[in-house]
Amino acid sequence: MLDLIKVFHQVVDSGSFSQAAQALHMAPSSIARNIDSLEAQLKSTLFKRSTRQLILTEEGRYFYKQSGKLVEDANNLLVQMRGSRDTPQGMLRISVFESFGNLCLAPIIPEFLQMHPDVQIDLDLDNKLVDLHSDNVDLAIRIGVPQDSGLKARKLLNHPTLLTASPHYLNQHPWITQPSDLHEHNCLLISQERQRNHWYFNKGKSNLKVHISGNFISKGGSPLLTAALQGCGVLLLSKWMVQPYIDSGQLVEVLPGWTVNHWEDGSGEIFAIYKGALYPKPTVRAFIDFLV
Known about the structure:
Elements: H1 2-14, H2 17-24, H3 28-42, E1 47-49, E2 54-56, H4 58-82, E3 90-96, H5 98-105, H6 109-115, E4 119-125, E5 139-143, E6 151-158, E7 161-165, H7 167-172, E8 187-190, E9 198-203, E10 206-211, E11 216-218, H8 221-229, E12 234-238, H9 239-247, E13 252-253, E14 259-261, E15 269-275, H10 282-291
Parallel strand pairs: 3-4, 3-5, 8-11, 8-12
Antiparallel strand pairs: 1-2, 5-15, 6-15, 7-12, 7-13, 9-10, 9-14
Helix pairs in contact: 1-2, 1-3, 1-4, 2-3
């Protein structure tokens, strides 16, 4: 029955019988027979079938959630027994926020692929939060520790942010000598679920929550960086994105005596996040080891 459950999970993860068949190197008709057999043994209907889509029933969602630990434990046991003899191979699906993916990840992926020629990488540049339990993603790279206790996170690097603006903008607007001065300035805003139009300042024992507003909002940092370079406003962004422009004089650090963050908890670290397996699949393990 475990083999049937694994087929069921592959169908859910792939989104269709045909995609699951490709992943498992089986005929679609064999996938359908496996699902029929599983439904017969469970005396339950797991999918609502139509010509256009495959949808889990309520029983199917419950069974997928409850059986996931069984499949995970079985896979972990196999990985544990095989140990380092497993060579990374197959598709590795990575979701990473746009700025980090473009600037930091994309340049080093070719080196990883040269080291592991049997691996293929599907890279999704997306700033939205992904659900590793339902989305077809093996590894997500995000800022901050995930709230889901069913996920594992491994720290990749610190994520300091700097407050900057162009010399042109600063020359055309009132001086910024303290955080509250930002009330009078146009701030370039990252749009995320946890963002509440506030920036958080810390210096010694002083902790301030400053309301900010602006006329340009983006889910990604790159458009905001371009706008800041053109004198559009004050920008709070990753140090590794703005430092080259500070060094060249195109941007100037604002309030350098303060530590500034988008969120109250700081979220000053970038993590590789994967499903909570004790022994992650070899491709995931190899890529994380490569990054750190």
